[in-house]
Design goal:
Elements: H1 2-14, E1 23-25, E2 29-32, E3 42-45, E4 49-59, E5 72-79, E6 82-86, H2 92-98, E7 112-117, E8 120-125, E9 131-134, E10 140-143, E11 148-151, E12 156-160, E13 163-176
Antiparallel strand pairs: 1-6, 2-3, 4-5, 4-13, 6-7, 7-8, 8-11, 9-10, 9-12, 12-13
Length: 178
């Protein structure tokens, strides 16, 4: 199930999805049609939309002393149809101004993606360099490339010595009709 989410995020990233806010849009889910349709026919039916606002705040010794709004992403809406992509390609001005020159090498072009699936936030590592996920209870988990992990509000995503993102996930909305 998480692999499908990751594939959507990577497909959207590969297709050039994602603007300044890093949001990439995934496509509809294929489902088999009922008995009235021809055998094996596929249709594209929208899944009910799940959405929530998230934000990321840069912190640590490797971050330039700037006001919060100049070292943050969001709030941005993520959903089961679109993820937020983070990296130099997606927020070039933010990374350039907020991360100290000595730590710029820690930031990849495509660092990670986060989104929402079945009411749970997720994180996928896109960089060749592993990330470290530090939970609120201070447990730490190394995440290699292509790994997917649950993400909780208050978790910190560590890029390396002195550079980390604090994740904040807002109230979720389900079954939104568009």
């Amino acid at each position: 199930r998480q692999g499908a989410v990751a594939s959507g995020a990577l497909a959207a990233a590969a297709a050039g999805g994602g603007g300044r806010d890093g949001a990439a849009q995934a496509s509809f889910s294929p489902r088999r049609l009922g008995a009235r349709s021809s055998p094996g026919a596929l249709s594209f039916v929208e899944d009910p939309l799940e959405a929530a606002e998230v934000s990321l705040e840069l912190r640590g010794e490797g971050i330039v002393d700037l006001p919060l709004d100049l070292r943050s992403i969001g709030p941005v809406q993520v959903s089961n149809r679109g993820s937020m992509l983070v990296g130099r390609r997606h927020q070039p001005e933010l990374h350039e101004r907020a991360i100290a020159p000595r730590c710029q090498e820690l930031v990849s072009v495509d660092q990670f993606a986060c989104g929402l699936k079945n009411g749970q936030f997720w994180l996928m590592v896109l960089s060749d360099t592993p990330l470290y996920l530090v939970r609120q209870d201070r447990s730490c988990e190394e995440l290699p490339k292509d790994s997917i992990s649950d993400l909780h509000s208050g978790d910190q995503i560590c890029l390396g010595s002195g550079v980390l993102w604090r994740f904040r996930g807002g109230a979720q909305q389900s079954e939104i009709k568009m």
